[in-house]
Amino acid sequence: MQTSSNSSKFNNGDRHNEDNSALLSSEARYKNLVANIPGAVYRCTCEGTGDGGFTTRTMAFLSEAIQEISGYPSSDFINDRVRSFASIIHPQDCKNVDAAVQKSVATKTPYILEYRIVRADGEISWVCEKGRSVGGEVDEARGKQEGQGEIEGFLSAADSPISPANFQSRVFYIDGVIWDITERKQAEEKLRNTEDFLNAVLQNLPISVFIKDATEQKIIYWNKASENLFGYSSDEVLNNNAADLLEAEEANYLQTQDLEVLATGKCVDLPEQIIQLPRRGKRILQAKKVPLFDSSGAPKYILGIAQDITESKKTETELLRLAIVAQKTQNGVIITDDRGCIEWVNEGFTRISGYKLEEVLGKKPVDVLQGPHTDPLTIAQMRSALATGEPFNQEIYNYSKDGKGYWVAMSIVPIYQETGELEGFIAVETDITDRKQAEATVRESESYYRCIVETASEGVWMFDGDSTTTFANSRMAEMLGYTVEEMLGRSLFEFIDAEAREIAEGYVKRRRQGIRERHDFKFTRSDGSHLWAIVSATPMFDDKGEFSGVLRMITDISDRKQAEAELRQTLQELEFEKFALDESAIVSNTDEFGVITYVNNQFCELFKYNREDLIGKTHRLVNSAYHSPDFFKHLWSTIRQGNVWRGEMKNQAKDGTLFWLDTTIVPCLNSNGEPHQYVAIRKDITDRKQAEEAVRLSESQLRNKNEELAKALRDVHKTQSMMVQNEKMVSLGQLVAGVAHEINNPVSFIYGNVMHADDYFKDLLKMLQLYQQEYPQPTAAIQQEIENVDLHFLLKDLPKLLTSMKMGAERIRQIVLSLKNFSRLDEAEQKQVDIHEGIDSTLLILQHRLKETAGHPKITLVKEFGDLPRVQCYAGQLNQVFMNIIGNAIDALEEAMDTGHWADGEPAPIPSCPSPTLRICTGVKYERDAVADDSIGNTSHIVIRIADNGPGIPAEVHQRLFDPFFTTKEPGKGTGLGLSISYQIVVEKHGGELKCHSAPGQGTEFAIEIPVARSQ
Fold first, then answer.
1. C-beta of residue 799 within 8 angstroms of C-beta of residue 807
2. What's the per-residue H, E or C state across 371-402?
3. How far apart are CA 900 and CA 993, in angstroms?
4. Strand-by-strand arrangement of the 675-684 sheet
5. Backbone torsions φ then ψ of 106, nearest 5 degrees
6. Are 531 and 524 in contact (CB under 8 A)?
7. Reduced to 3 states, what is the DSSP secondary structure of residue 964?
């Protein structure tokens, strides 16, 4: 069965090779035909937009002739690889081109366009484009191209019709040809210029020029000189004959002349003709009448030339000069005197140089026209010729009036009088600037193409008629391992081994017959290794049609050949692997629809079916109904996208036995990248699944338990950290409350008794004063004791002592009261409190850190308290927040004292502070719709701002400021919980906000916003 399959593949391969050979031959003939068409053949795509229009055309095929037309290689435009073809159309012509092509596609008629393009060298060229739409969707045509080749695909949609519906929504091809018409356009332009010029010349000629038709002798052309000569305007003369304008005798005479001209078909010359003109009187004319014939040779017009020679013969010299100018109207003419000074110039000179006669009259051309880039040697040669009276013919670089340079071919001829004396010179100059620019362009193009050849990725190899190398680019030499110099002059057969020589000789004979070919060939490198290459050989012939050599384009395919050899080896290995796979796994193949096309023996044994029972069926035959429809939907979605599916499936054998299979389904892709069959590889894992099912139950229970324990552990850790900090604060509050309570009793005793002691002292003093008044002379013992105790000092100092004791007791009482306010152990619920009391209590506890110490200056405290309402809050917890934030601010200021890094500049929260400063501001925040006045509107929040002019907080630290256990302090100086707990108290407990505004070098400010009243 395997042998039959291989034989079928072999036969199909032969037919495929024959088809490819025929296709290549047809494509080569078509390419040869396209290469000889005088223009660039193309096929482009355009897509309908739904409104009758289409998008920009995209070139699908463009022949190489476009490079000669535009200067760009055709590969640049294919699929807009480098540039679109529309990009080189002259901007002024783009709209007309698009409109004409769109109209042609819509009406299904061919179109012919003439427009300008911008070449690669920047020059403007005219092209003519002829094309027609051929219909067919691009996707369909592309599919045909992939199956038929480039040229066959190009022709595949030529006869597809275009319906209106197609035009609205489908993508179409347009086939056409483009050829260069620049020379024709230039010729037409020159013709128009010539006609305009000749008409201008005729209109401005000082001689009468008129034209009559041959049938009725009616005048159809009448120049200005005719008007002046005969006294009739053009409007009076045109479409009239002589009888309508002159007396009968004069009219008959002129008509006789006309008939003679028409009868003889020859020119009639009238050197002197006397005529009586109604408006000019008697005049003497020199006239000539010339018959003009149509294409059949019959007279069609009579050209009349008349000149009034009544005036003095002094005009003869001017007539001679005008005759010379008339013969050279396309060139510039200069007439000088014998000293070379300009006497007259024609309009051609003015057109070329920009100078009018009056601007150059009396000047020498060298002083007017030559400039810094004019060749001094040419000027010297011209002066030498003029000095000797000899003709001068040379190309010279002149400058126009506007300073622009231009090239002219200058011809100077001396004019001699009858006596032989030099009268002057006539110089005729022809503008050759375009020719010079074209020559420069050719030189640049030659350099450009040589650069392309030298930098091409392919080898370029040229031979003469004897197969001797005449040119090789550097890439070609590199591929063969030689230098270019080593290859020149060597025969083709020196680079070929004996085995390939006979084949090469056959190819050379075919080149001599003019046959172009593309084939694979094996060359021999300088080191003896082989170079496999694709050779595109084109024979070359001289002007006589004789064979002159061959141009070969060489593409290195050594890697491809090596890959082909490796592929053959791989195919052999795959055959062995397939055999091994069939012996070790359960294998089945299906087509793209899931129909079984192959099963191996193990598949039949496991599922207990014969092979004949399975072939042509689907896997529903072994479906156990265990898996959901979504399972199979996902499976098919995966493999239809070209992806491998791996999974475990539960199947059922013919006898009803259920078993598990570890399944891998691999899609086999065709040349379009789409699956065309699937290979399923299975392994029986029923025993493993049964064991896993038993383990899964216990693991599930254990996993649930572990998850519960992990969650509980996380909650414990979080609660523990909070409890530790809260316990610390509770302990601190209890300690403070206990100390305050213990101190309060004796202090109250002292404070209460001091007042009584003061009263008692006053009574004793009054008694002592009374005693001194009643007994002014005390005994000696009393007097001695008075002196010993210094009674006078006691009486004076004791009141002060009692006052100091009263003040000290009052101070101790205030401190105790502040400690009680800070601890607030009796306030576990929210209540209305004065925030300022809590801030003052915190500052009182931290007062010792604000004072000046050894090495640290005093920290200046700035309090800017506003008028705050009483706030419903947890007072003790807010005091903890104040303690954490103010303590951190003092830490930052102490750090700044040690490092010297202070906030500076206006952006700082405390600008222009010369010393460590702590500022505490309070204020209120109003509801959004409230008026700004404090006395109007409802107060929604109170705001406490605590700022320092310390070093500030870096951005990376700022982001983690409120994370638990995050601290930047040294070990032992902080737990990392202060700000985290403060954040929870402000935000979670009170529904407020805690924000930090800080940056390095700008200090730090914490803003606390607390709602004035918060629902429980």
1. no
2. CCCCCHHHHHHHHHHHHHCCCEEEEEEEECCC
3. 32
4. 596-599, 586-591, 675-684, 658-669, 645-652
5. -65, -40
6. yes
7. coil
Q: How far is CA 147 from CA 136, 154, 173, 784, in A?
A: 16, 12, 18, 142
* Tokens linked to 626: 């265990």
Tokens linked to 900: 């010297």
> What pLDDT score was predicted for residue 98?
87
Residue 918, both tokens: 């702590």
Report the alpha-carbon distance of residue 890 to residue 851 in Å, rounded: 11
Residue pLDDT, tens place only, 506-564 = 889 988 888 888 888 989 999 988 889 889 899 999 888 889 899 888 888 888 888 77
CA-CA distance, 409 to 396, in Å (whole number)? 6
CA distance 249 to 885: 129
CB atoms within 10 A of CB 748: 14
Digit-coded pLDDT (tens) for 157-179: 444 444 444 444 455 788 899 99
Residue 740 φ then ψ, to 5°: -60, -40
How many other C-beta atoms are found inside a 10 Å radius of the C-beta of residue 704? 10
**Cα separation, 939 vs 517, whole angstroms:** 95
Q: What are phi and psi of 373, to 5 degrees?
A: -100, 5
Write phi, then psi, for 645 (nearest 5 degrees).
Answer: -110, 130
Q: Which residue in the block uniquely carries the two structure tokens 């024709």?
A: 184
Q: Which two tokens stand for residue 150?
A: 């480039």
Beta bridge partners of 1006: 946, 996
Q: Using H for helix, E for strand and C for coil, what is the string for 20-66?
A: HHHHHHHHHHHHHHHHCCCCEEEEEEEEECCCCCECCCEEEEECCHH
**Cα–Cα distance measured from residue 47 to residue 166, given in angstroms and rounded to the nearest whole number:** 10
392: β partners: 412
H/E element holding 672? none
Given this model, what pLDDT does residue 314 score?
Answer: 47
Give residue 881's identity as a one-letter amino acid code: V
Q: How far apart are CA 575 and CA 761, in angstroms?
A: 125
Own/partner contacts of 325-332, CB < 8 Å, gap of 24 or more, are 326/201, 326/205, 328/428, 329/197, 329/198, 329/201, 330/430, 331/428, 331/429, 331/430, 331/431, 332/408, 332/428, 332/429, 332/430, 332/431
Within 13 Å, how many C-alpha atoms sit on residue 259's CB side?
A: 7
301/273 Cα distance (integer angstroms): 21
CB 223 within 8 A of CB 244: no
The set of residues, in sequence order, having a beta carbon less than 8 Å from that of 888 and lying 6+ positions away, is 978, 979
Is the Cβ–Cβ distance between 916 and 857 less than 8 Å? yes
Task: Give backbone dihedrals phi and psi of 735, rounded to 5 degrees, phi first.
Answer: -65, -45
Phi, psi of 302 (to 5 degrees): -120, 120
Secondary structure of residue 291 in the 3-state scheme: strand
Q: Residues 1004, 947: contact at Cβ < 8 Å?
A: yes
Burial 455-472 (b: 16+ CB within 10 A, else e): eeebbbbbbebebebebb
Query: Rounded to two decimals, what is the model's pTM?
Result: 0.30
DSSP run (H or E) holding 688: helix 686-774
Give the residue among 926, 923, 920, 919 at the shortest CA–CA distance from 943: 923
Supply 470's token pair: 């005449």
Q: Among candidates 131, 147, 165, which has minimal Cα distance to 45?
A: 131
User: Distance (Å, rounded) from C-alpha 68 to C-alpha 127?
Assistant: 12
pLDDT tens-place string over residues 669-711: 888 888 888 888 888 888 888 887 778 777 777 888 888 887 7
Instruction: State the burial class of residue 823 (Cβ atoms within 10 Å of its Cβ: 0-12, 13-18, 19+).
Output: buried
Token pair of 191 as six digits: 């013709």
The full 3-state SS of 853-891, as one line of letters, equals: ECCECCCEEEEECCCCCCEEECHHHHHHHHHHHHHHHHH
